[in-house]
Amino acid sequence: MKTASYLSWAGTFTLTIATTLITNTPVRSEAPIFRCDRSSGIPTTVVQSQRHGSVKIIEWKSTQFGDKFDPETRCNLVSRKFEKFAKAGTLKYFTTGSVNRQPVICAVASQSSPCDSESMLYTLRKDVSARETLKLLLDIKSGATGNALNETESRIYVDFDEIVRAKSQASQASQASQASQTQPLF
C-alpha cells in the first residue's frame, strides 16, 4: 500500500516538475520584427532578427505621394506589411509587378507566387521602373547581394534572407571602418 502511494506521489511530482519546466521555458522566436525607426531623422523600415540584429531595409525619402502618404506614413504602413508577411511565412522573396496599372514591389513565398494586391508591399510612381527600383533598393548594382538575385525575363526575385544578411554585413563593415578611423594610430 505504501509503495502504491509512493509511486502515485512520485508520478504526480515528476509530472508537476515537467509541466513547470516546459511552461516556464522561454520560447525564442526566430521570426523577425519590423518597425519604422526615426532615430536617423529619416523614417526607415528596420528588421530586428536574432541572427543579424537590427538591419535597415528601406529609407523613406520620397514626398511625391502627397501629404496622405508622406515618408513617415509610408514607413509605418510598409513596416506593418513586412511584419504581417513575415508572420504569415510569405516574406521569402521581393519581386515586382503591377496593381491597378501602378508598378509595385511585392513580398512572395515562392518564385511562382503572384505579385498582386494581396502580396503588395508598396506602390511606386507610374513613371518608375519597379525592376530598377528593386535593384536600387536592395543595392544589387554594388554587388553586395551575391546570389540573392534571380532575374527571369518577366520578373526579378530577390531572396529576403540574403538581403538582410548582405545589408547586415555591409553595416558591420561600415561601423568597423568608422571605428578604425576614430582610433588614434599611435
Automatic annotation (TrEMBL):
InterPro entries: COP23. Pfam families: COP23. This is COP23 domain-containing protein. It comes from Waterburya agarophytonicola KI4.
